[in-house]
Amino acid sequence: MQNTKMTKYSTKTINKVSYTFITEEIDDALNETIDEVTAKKQLILTRKISKDSVIVEQPLQITLSWLEQGKVKRKVFTITMRTPGHDYFLIMGLLHSEGVIKQLKDVETIKLESGEVTGEGKYNEWLIKFTNGFIPDLSSLDRYMVSYSSCGLCGTTSLKTLQLKTDINLSYPEHKNILMAQSILLLSSKMRNEQGLFDQTGGVHGAALFDQQLNIQQLYEDIGRHNAVDKVIGALLALDKSLQKAPLWILLVSGRISFEIVQKTIMAGISILVGVGAPSDLAIQAAKQFDLTLIGFASNKGFNVYHGDWRLTNETK
Fold first, then answer.
1. Which residue among 30, 144, 183, 210 is the one 20 to 30 A from 164 at the CA level?
2. How far apart are CA 171 and CA 311, in angstroms?
3. What is the pLDDT of residues 275-304, one digit of tens each?
4. Is-above-0.85 flag for pTM?
């Protein structure tokens, strides 16, 4: 498994006041008219001031720079809220997920443009310089970002935009009956055992990439589920691993499965997406369109398959 060490700027220490209560029964003899449901009162047992760790949430501005017709062009790509740490992977994954880049060599440098590096972790403004000769096509991205922000991923428009961004076909014949169905039962506990930030704060989502043998290849945590996924994908790109026609990868995410998570999964060429929560209807539509195996409500007791059951088998290999 790749290094998933937390950065010192991912959490901060705060003061908190903790209350605990005990429940005391009310004597019905004192009030014969009191309703049985409300015949209890809460008494404060303890009140304690202590230290606690909370997850850090800060804005990240991504600016793009490239050479076109002899002139340097710049464009603010996005400002997103994230947990500081592994920003390089987050940026690479986000650019790939949005169809701006396809491979590591499209990017020449990623560097901190401004933002004081302090205990507050202000790694906030990053400049991405593309390789000479690489001109990003941002027209489809602009249309997508408008629909994304104005109507919360409008169904038909979003699906058409995704189709324009990629010609990926996940229907690899060699994936038929490739994964034991019982394997899915093990994923959530495997990821949970590696979630150090969640143990420390209880305030982050996680995303983990498994291979066919259920080894964790990448695992990242972030206050945003989509950011955790971008960090996983960006880490693969940074290792210069091809995401097109990828081997069998299984991506597990905490919480629900939105269209955005499905989009990132498809763009990365990952053929199985598993969530511990429910998928949205638009997520299911996209999974069907690109033949992604989509699994929700995954636990150690069972799961639901919303599309792509053909990749699973109950037969021992």
1. 210
2. 10
3. 999 999 999 999 999 999 999 999 999 999
4. no
Same domain, 175 and 63: no
| HSE-up of residue 313 (Cα within 13 Å, Cβ side) | 9
- Structure tokens, 129: 């310089």
Scan for tokens 């929700």, then name that residue: 296
Rounded Cα–Cα distance for residues 144 and 213 (Å): 36
Flag the least confident range among 3-17, 21-35, 295-309: 21-35
Mark whether 63 and 38 lie in a shared domain.
no
Q: Is the pLDDT of residue 218 over 90?
A: yes
- Residue 221, both tokens: 């945590």
179 and 297 inside one domain: yes
Contact 62, 72 (CB under 8 A): no
In a domain, 158, yes or no: no
Length of the chain, in residues:
317
Whether 121 has a pLDDT exceeding 60, the answer reads: no
Q: Provide the 8-state DSSP code for 16.
A: E
Catalytic residues: 151
Q: In what order do the strands lie in the sheet with 272-275?
A: 216-222, 205-210, 250-253, 272-275, 293-296, 304-307
Domain of residue 36, residue span: 11-54
